[in-house]
Amino acid sequence: NGEDITFGSYDGKAWARSSDVVCHEYTHNTIYHIYGEFIHTGYGTEAFAMDEGISDYFASTINGDANHAEDIGGNRTLQNNFSWDPSQPDPVHWNGQVIGGAIWNLRQTVGQNVADNLAFKALQMVPHARSFQQFLENMLVVDGNIYGASHQSQIISAFSAHGINTAPLLVASITGPTNVAQNTSATWYANVSGGTGVYQYEWLKSGVYIGSGSSVSTVVNDVFTLRLKATSGAQTTYATIQVHPDASGGGCPYIFADTETGWIMDNNILHRSEFVKNRGKIIQDFYKLNVIPTKTDHGYKIQIKELNSDHSYLDEFNLYAVDHSPNITIGVTEDNRIVQYLSNDLILADEITFENSENLHSGTNQIKNSKGDMMHVKFSSDKMNRLKTAQFGSASTKQAALFIDFHSFNFSKPPGKESALQVQDNSQLNKSNWMKLEVARREQGSAVIIPLTEDVNLNDIKIHWNRESVFGRIGLVPITDIDSKQLLALKSAMHSKHGDVIRKLNTADNLFSELNESETIDLTFEAPSDLNEKLIRSFILETNGYYVVPGETESVIPKEFGLEQNYPNPFNPTTTIRYNLKENTKVTLTIYNTLGQVVKALVDKEETAGIKNISWDGKDEHGKQVASGVYIYKLKTGNLVFSRKMIFLK
């Protein structure tokens, strides 16, 4: 009655002892207080089924079990593919499984917390839903208001699988330039489809409203985020691009940091992927952020974007916070060590000369060299004494490192294709004793720290440049490893095309999230405790992955066997299935229906190790289009078996 709950018994079983029954009845009373009456009051069977189905759902999600009241003989389940059928003997409770099953399907794709929140907030929407379709539309509105419409496709797919439909999925994208000459105006256009066919637009430039038409124009002065909000009926969707003035980025994915003034471009990552020895291999890249993200209630946000036509494979991201005193500088060495040094301990070269070039002139603020240059870097005896005091004057010995402050520069050969330099031990010239350092400067400039061995003559460092560069400072600095760092957990990872990819990016497991041109991944990391006012905080981003340039062979041997979720899912007419083989083996990949019957054998042969992709067109062994519904695809490799579910929609 909205206030009291009275429990009976059946077949000797006390209903009050069933958690499913208690939570189900409690949900009835909760809905009563939200609506001011029960959903079905004054309405028909469908509204009555909503009362029962939504109560079934909250009981099942609280108890983590799709089967309802089985402990007292109940036979309802939310793990089903039922559609509306008023001919059932008990149409209210049976059809309750339809809407309850739709919400449960959504829970399987977006997780319990999101599904529970969407369902509960949809109940609170006014006017209150009295039909399955109205409840679906309220969930779409809630998703737009709370989650930025990031779950629209999953909601529609989950409800469509139970015959609950609304207007076609609303999809939006932005057409227009991402690189614009500084201080000039450009125009961007909204591309929208689906929904009711009647659209409303809202354009934001780094969070500031700038227009409401199907296109928008603005002047480009600095890097900014252009965001389109499109609304049609109950559905809302968003599209976002980054625009920057004369960005020279390309070759490698780029980092953007979310700051108080919007998304700011930082630098490229995985730049060593183009070393010949690294091509097609997973590499590890540590980078100290130059642009510090702003701490929000959700944590720190970083975006990874592919600016050019390269194809990036990303496996794991970690963000580290290093709190330190202001007189200490944090850096990353070329061998990925996170180190610290005192700012006052950096000694700059007194004399810089070339053997075979006139490009460089000592004493200038910007020093440029050409490919093939041989350079001498010399220090006075006073500075060498300072260096030794800094190295050996404390309890722990510090390692000498070469410090080069590279500038941004438009190179004839982009960074990463060759090592930038080699360092020679000048005391053993006859032996040609080179330190063959695989050094690759980043595109937007950064400090490069190169630990030196004891064999290098620090009085006269000889450097052979393999590539043209421009830098401002070069010197020596004594370094030590940092005392401690804090790992900030990855909370979310949203791909601009593939949605939630956190499972692929929170551990190094050869399950890649891929980036093609203009695609992005938004990463959110947890925020540590507030900073001690006497300290400052630096951030180090660790990236594991690689990229390939167009035309190169893409070949990586996975560490483990595995089967990935098909994409797109749900799909029509085709979808792609990806699987990983760590060694040569016999492979079978078969599609089954929910009854366990074979629908289509996609692979049945010996295959070599690698990452494999295969498409399915939704047709069975006889070339006949399959019916809409859930299908299982199963991979067998030796003694291992993997299986996943996918949804085909007509």
Keywords:
Neutral Protease, domain 2; six-stranded antiparallel sheet; 650 residues; Immunoglobulin-like; alpha+beta
Secondary structure topology:
Blueprint: E1 9-10, E2 13-14, H1 19-35, H2 45-63, E3 67-68, E4 76-77, H3 91-110, H4 112-124, H5 132-147, H6 152-160, E5 171-175, E6 179-180, E7 184-193, E8 200-205, E9 208-211, E10 215-220, E11 224-232, E12 235-245, E13 253-259, E14 262-268, E15 283-288, E16 300-306, E17 311-324, E18 328-332, E19 338-342, E20 347-348, E21 351-354, E22 367-369, E23 374-378, H7 381-392, E24 399-406, E25 421-424, E26 434-435, E27 447-451, E28 460-465, E29 469-481, E30 486-488, E31 490-495, E32 499-500, H8 502-505, E33 513-515, E34 520-525, E35 536-548, E36 562-563, E37 575-581, E38 585-593, E39 598-607, E40 610-616, E41 629-637, E42 640-648
Parallel strand pairs: 6-12
Antiparallel strand pairs: 1-2, 3-4, 5-7, 7-10, 8-9, 8-11, 11-12, 13-14, 13-16, 15-35, 16-34, 17-30, 17-33, 17-35, 18-19, 19-29, 20-29, 21-23, 22-29, 23-28, 24-27, 24-29, 25-26, 25-28, 31-32, 31-34, 36-37, 37-40, 38-39, 38-41, 41-42
Helix pairs in contact: 1-2, 2-3, 3-4, 3-6, 4-5, 5-6
Overview of this protein structure:
The structure is a single chain. The chain has eight helices and 42 strands. It folds into four domains: 9-160, Neutral Protease, domain 2, CATH 1.10.390; 171-245, Sandwich (Immunoglobulin-like); 334-481, Jelly Rolls, CATH 2.60.120; 562-648, Immunoglobulin-like (Sandwich), CATH 2.60.40.4070. The strands form ten sheets. Strands 18, 19, 20, 22, 24, 27 and 29 form a seven-stranded antiparallel beta sheet that branches. A six-stranded antiparallel beta sheet has the order 14-13-16-34-31-32. The two termini are 43 Å apart. The chain is 17% helix and 38% strand. The longest helix has 20 residues, at 91-110. With 650 residues, the chain is α+β, with helices and mostly antiparallel strands.
